[in-house]
Amino acid sequence: MINIFSILFLAWLALAHQEGTSSQELREKVPDEFEGSWQRWHMKQEHDLDHADAKSVFILHDTRNAKRLSKLDILRMYGLLREEVVGRGDGTGSHDDTEVITDDMKNHLVQQVMSLIDKDGDGEISFDEWMEYSSQGGEFPDFGYGPGHEYDFEEEYEKHHWIQYHAENDPDVMVQHAEDVEHELLHHLHEIEHEKAGSGYNQRFPIRLSKIPPKFKA
Fold first, then answer.
1. pLDDT tens per residue across span 35-81
2. Which residues fall within 8 angstroms of residue 140, CB to CB, at 6 or more apart?
3. How many CB atoms are closer than 10 A to CB 66?
4. Alpha carbons 153 and 112: distance in angstroms, whole number
5. In Å, what is the CA distance from 151 to each residue of 144, 157, 200?
6. Is 38 in contact with 139 (CB distance < 8 Å)?
7. Which of 50, 131, 155, 198 could bond 151 through an S-S bridge, CB–CB 3.0 to 4.6 Å?
């Protein structure tokens, strides 16, 4: 018997399939509610904080507790401390939207941020430099790379969905949401891609649409 997950899986493939594999650029606008402030968007999306002052923003991203933000801290904040963004980066989305993060992207972002805040040019942002920049209305700018998912797509899914809906009352996922289905598809297609890399296998869509019964394509 075909269960609801199988039906959703086949329907998703039918809707998502295109000839070859398309790749969308990492471009995501700041939602209107944040009035153009990427920093506010990031703090709400990733840290669940509606109002965070400059000191809190700094402390949350100072991973070494050194009162300094390094290049790695900046990349982590923007979600670029990885080789690729899988799906939307939050554990859901289409695997066809997975985007490679290049060294050029990383270097450009770090250079731009440092040029704004790192006044002594030592390659890191001190607490004093940040507070001075913030006191003049400065914020971490938007580069169009989304809200800055700081962890990999598995951890992001757990943080943004699993903990809220399944961790306590539904650990066996008896109730499946669209996010659960998307995540499972994303997880399996990502595994297939990396297991079959260089094999010539259809890495992103291993199931042939021609073999899917028409009733599941409607």
1. 999 999 999 988 889 999 999 999 999 999 999 999 999 999 998 88
2. 38, 39, 42, 57, 77, 113
3. 12
4. 26
5. 18, 10, 30
6. yes
7. 155
